[in-house]
Amino acid sequence: xxxxxxxxxxxxxxxxxxLSLECTVEGTSNPNLYWYRQAAGRGLQLLFYSVGxxxxxxxxxxxxxxxxxxxxQFILSSKKLLLSDSGFYLCAWTGQGVSYEQYFGPGTRLxxx
Amino acid sequence: xxxxxxxxxxxxxxxxxxxxxxCTYTAxxxxxxxWYVQYPGEGLQLLLKATKADDKGxxxxxxxxxxxETTSFHLEKGSVQVSDSxxxxxxxxxxxxTNKLIFGTGTLLAVQP
Lengths: 113, 113
Hints:
Radius of gyration of chain B: 14 Å
Structural class of chain B: mainly beta
Oligomer: heterodimer
Order of helices and strands of chain B: EEEEEEEEEEEE
Helix content of chain B: under 10%
Low-confidence stretches of chain B: none
């Protein structure tokens, strides 16, 4: 069966520090991968998605970036965190096809202080 | 543009009460529709889905019917339990290779014993 992992589960970082969040998927190949952010009391905002290795599409301009160095690995990064980067970051995957639903990881709670 | 609108929360109900959470959508194509649930501190889980008009998705006592004429996908449950307390997200997925989801802002449901 397929599983999706995210780490770390929680993170507290000072403003201006770098960020690296990792997401890996097991049990499938060539998934579409997604990064979402959920700010406190808000809905989900799609940040990046990837349909293949090295293929990244950005949905919103910001100081975050994403990379996909391997088929089932998706990394969210920042060189310098802002206070507004605080939130709950969710990784998700989906198979190829019209009716495949997205499966979400457990999330990373990021607090920028 | 494509969007999903959900009723504002929080929704507070007593145990065994009837639940309705309204969801309407705007889409240029012919989307698939989903309800996701997020329990406190966790990622999102797919609750139910419908892929074409008049389809009814159902799971764990929850139901939603894809109404193309009213562009709606309202979530209902006949008798809620305390364990149903969570945030519920309505989402649509347009047909295409990226399988991106567009989410509503979420509705917090609090069920009191």
